[in-house]
Amino acid sequence: MPVSLQRHGAVAVLTITHPPVNSLSQPMREALWTALEEADADDGVTSIVLTGTGRGFCAGGDLGEMRSPLQQAWPGISNHLLPRIEACRKPVIAAMHGFAIGGGLELALACHYRVAQQDTRLALPEIRHGVIPPSGSQRMPRAIGVDRSLRMIVFAQYERADAFAGTSLIDTLCDGDVAAAAIDFAARIDQAIPPADALLRHRPLDRAESETALAAWRERLHAMPGSSALMRYCVDAVGYAVSAQSFDGGLAAAKRLHDQLAAALASPPQPELETPS
Q1: Does the pLDDT at position 205 exceed 60?
Q2: Which residues are tagged catalytic?
């Protein structure tokens, strides 16, 4: 089974198994959806832990499906899986080890809480594939701020999980079995608090600080030799998190930009995009 479901008392542990890097192929996405539905519907379950086997948590989208019908098939990552996680009646805890990359990190960002081994490598390197991280560009600034988010997104920078201790990105760090640490964390969650209250979508951004960071990045890229339009699109995507009237408004704008860029890659000549600011 690509996603197994095991009960540990009142905690349902969903384990992704898709060697070598637990990528989110269409069958994997469908299996994860089914497992989430089952765990969420079980009245004996109070919390859900999402983890991966092997070398790491999840490496995101399956590169073998890029520009194929399977990439667009139900359920999508941003359009279906992430909203399904956020809609769970029980808190979902991402238990990360090894790596959480691209859509894999976006998966964790949509969870209510995140537990990670100290040396887990985190990245949003979508720029290397000619696009921007649609949901990551909206949730990551709410977790670590605009400046640190753009360093990761614009330069496809990898960071260790322990670099984010004390931020909303990581709730607990551990050295050993991350699934066990997440189960222990689940036992300490106050069940009287509505799960939705913990979601990053509800974390406020410091408007003045965020706008200052965006302006600095635009100036930096304008002056930087070799900077690309795609880098500036990354800044625009994060900017939607700051300027939109709501989280969903920013996410919709980022998805439109992502889809335009993806269409440009798939169907030359490139469609005309809005000029990046």
Answers
A1: yes
A2: 106, 126
